Amino acid sequence: MTLTIRSVLLGLTILLVGQMPALADKRVALVIGNSAYQNVTRLDNPRNDAKLMAETLKSVGFDLVGGGAQLDLDKPHLDQAVQGFGDKLQGADVALFYYAGHGLQVRGSNYLVPINANPTKEADLDFQMLDASVVLRQMEGAGAKLNLVILDACRNNPFGGRGLRATEGGLAQMRAPEGTLISYATQPGNVAQDGADGNSPYTKALSQTIKRPGLDIFRTFNEVGLAVIKSTGSAQQPWTSTSPINGDFYFTPGAAQQNTATTLQSSSQNDAAQAWAAVQGTTSVAVLEDFARRYSDSIYGTIARAKLDDLKKSQVAVATPVPAKPEVLLKETPTPSSIDFPARPVRIIVPYAAGGSSDIVARIYAAKMSEKLGQPFIIENRAGAGGAIGAQAVARAPADGYQLLLGTTQTQSIYNSLTKSPAFDSLTDFAPVAVIGSSPAVVVVPSSQNGDLRALVANAKANPGKLTYASSGAGTFSNLAAELFKLKGGSLDILHVPYRGTAPAMTDLLAGRIDMLIDVPGFVLSAYSAGQVKILGVASSKRSSSFPNVPTIDEALGTSGIEASSWYVIEAPASTPPAIINKLNAATRAVMADSGLQTQLKGIGTEAVTDSTPASARALIAKDRTQYKAVADAAGIRID
User: Fold this and answer.
1) 101, 33 in Cβ contact below 8 A?
2) Which of 397, 406, 408, 451 is the most buried (most CB within 10 A)?
3) Number of other CB atoms surrounding residue 177 within 10 Å
4) Does position 19 have pLDDT exceeding 80, yes or no?
5) How far apart are CA 199 and CA 633, in angstroms?
6) How far apart are CA 579 and CA 575, in angstroms?
7) 418-421-425 Cα angle (round to 5)
8) What is the rounded CA–CA span in Å between residue 525 and residue 234?
């Protein structure tokens, strides 16, 4: 090491020691569990859940308001606890609020219910209950680096029979302020299970997962979600809302994190440190120049510039190498940035809200890619416009491989097929990496319905316009898959009944108000396992491994070409260097071959795709675009 680098490192070591945060960050938590309700249905588990969570958080270094779980609080004591929480947060690094008990939403606002609440009109809610946004404001005002809000409060609305028409069961989605993650026991608008062993499935899974070493915050809540989905047979799916969070946070650090001071370090310094670890041994001038440019404001950028100066001086006396002959040069010469990719965290944009099947698939994939390539793969949810907002953001992102899209059949094929003025073109604005999962549509009927698929079609032909099918909305995959079935199954006349999502469609199907539903298996696995529905056919070229005894639609009807699958594809912006695409594809194929990952995907009704290439992914997108445009034209379906 030359004098220049030695001097720089000595100075930076002094600087780092002076600025480095303490290894033990200050963690503060308020844990509340309400069970003994005085005017509505009591709940058995919230007291137990709060006690379990308090013990768990204490074991990983949290200082609890009141010294432990706060149980069965009336309105004055609930307000007092939240106010005390805000006071104690001053100077904290991590703030965590946990609540178990009754919760409800009113016009998009979430209320946590004290044990003495007894509203008779909607105006009473503001005075008798705690608006969850008050908790968020307390946390924002304290200035903690990371705020966590955990709500195991998605039970049935206890005041539904009192004429409070604006109140609903479950909780509504809340905007996560900067540096905040909000975790719900189940998806907004849904009702969570209480559990039969003294604790709710959600809190039980959360307590166990928090103690596992080496899981960062995103991996923690992803693992909790997967555990709850498994334990409840997919009946309950936890959900998160998050804003960008600087740095990494581990409830329980693993060996790799024990002796580092990066827990809540700023993201730019953290990214730079990880990138420097990957390139510090290089002697490439181009790589060091690229690093120094990217991280010019970080201390590692200074180190890179010092090493670059020494390297250039040492090369002055070296003879200029003879250029390679043109005929042996690669058609696409890799750039330094593509050779060292990934040198910093990679972000995967999921164009839907957290907690859904796309989000779960993305988090399973991201966890394995992080292990494979040695850099964090971070999930960011950008929902809106049926997935178009998130997809468009990636289409316009820098073509360097550090921002990817989890595309779906909806965003990459149906959107362009049905939209008059699309915001992007799925074939020209993206560079496919690989298809990672696929779920063939299935024909579902109530278990009380007699006959097979051939009998269903015969009934539809004998009674045109009298049978009904449900979909999750006009222009959605379930709508297009059903119209494909109608078109190729013999121009069937079956009435379309659109719903706002698959959950309400399933409710009416189970009640016998709808004759059939065609959608992906993940939405019907729980009802199918319980014997509430029958699956008559699978819209694929071969039988599904999840339902080996169920014939394909073509097999059952003697037709051909009735194939409709909801798939997931990883894509980068167009013009991303082929070397980066190929590296991502090779890593993707490797992780998709993992048996544990395949089991996780199968648990949500998705089959892993292990052999996809960029070319085959592009071909699938183009094929389905053509198919769904023809189906939409025949059925007269448009998104706009």
Assistant:
1) yes
2) 406
3) 15
4) no
5) 51
6) 11
7) 80
8) 7
Phi/psi class of residue 162: alpha, beta or left (left: φ > 0; alpha: ψ in -120 to 50)?
alpha
d(CA 380, CA 272): 20
Q: Give one DSSP letter per residue of 226-255, joined into a string.
A: HHHHHHTTTS---EEEE----S--BSS--T
CA distance 241 to 251: 18
Give yes or no for a contact between 426 and 415, defined as CB atoms under 8 angstroms apart.
yes
Numbers of helices and strands, H then E, in the chain: 23, 22
Which range (233-242, 300-309, 519-528, 601-610) has the least confidence? 300-309
Torsion angles phi and psi, residue 624, rounded to 5: -70, -30
The owner of tokens 């997935």 is 387
Sheet with strand 533-538: strands edge to edge = 495-498, 468-471, 516-519, 442-446, 533-538
Contact 632, 410 (CB under 8 A): no
DSSP annotation of 565 reads E
- The whole-angstrom separation of Cα 64 and Cα 206 is 17
How far apart are alpha carbons 618 and 390 in whole angstroms? 19
DSSP-based three-state secondary structure for 129? coil
Query: Alpha-carbon distance 46 to 591, whole Å?
Result: 39
| Residue environment code for 496-535, b if the CB has 16+ CB neighbours within 10 A, otherwise e | ebebeebeebbeebbeeebbbbbbbbbbbbbbbeeebbbb
Query: Which residue, chain included where needed, has tokens 């509340």?
Result: 32
User: Which 8-state DSSP code applies to residue 384?
Assistant: -
Q: What does the DSSP assignment read for 471-488?
A: ESSTTSHHHHHHHHHHHH
The one-letter amino acid code at 124 reads D
Q: Name the pairing type of β-strands 442-446 and 533-538.
A: antiparallel
pLDDT of 526 higher than 60: yes
134-165 confidence digits (pLDDT tens): 998 888 877 788 999 999 987 666 776 555 55
Phi, psi of 29 (to 5 degrees): -140, 145
The residue length of the chain stands at 640
Please tell me the least confidently modeled range out of 104-113, 361-370, 395-404. 104-113
> Do strands 346-350 and 403-408 pair parallel, antiparallel, or not at all (unpaired)?
parallel
Q: How many CB atoms lie within 10 A of CB 207?
A: 18
Q: Residue 547 in contact with residue 535, Cβ under 8 Å?
A: yes
Confidence tier at 280 by pLDDT (50, 70, 90): low
Tokens of 558: 């003697």
Q: Kindly report, residue by residue over 309-351, the tens digit of the pLDDT.
A: 666 655 543 334 434 333 323 244 455 556 689 999 999 999 9
How far, in Å, CA of 277 to CA of 273, rounded? 6
Sign of the torsion formed by the C-alpha atoms of 71, 72, 77 and 79: positive
Q: In this structure, are strands 109-112 and 180-184 parallel, antiparallel, or unpaired?
A: unpaired
Question: In angstroms, what CA-CA distances link 13 with 10, 24, 499?
Answer: 5, 20, 61
Burial of 284 (0-12, 13-18, 19+ CB in 10 A): middle
Distance in angstroms (rounded) separating the CA atoms of residues 461 and 421: 37
Query: What is the distance between the alpha carbons of residues 493 and 271, in angstroms, rounded to a whole number?
Result: 57
Chain mean pLDDT for the chain: 82
If residue 98 lies in a helix (H) or strand (E), which one and from where to where? strand 94-100
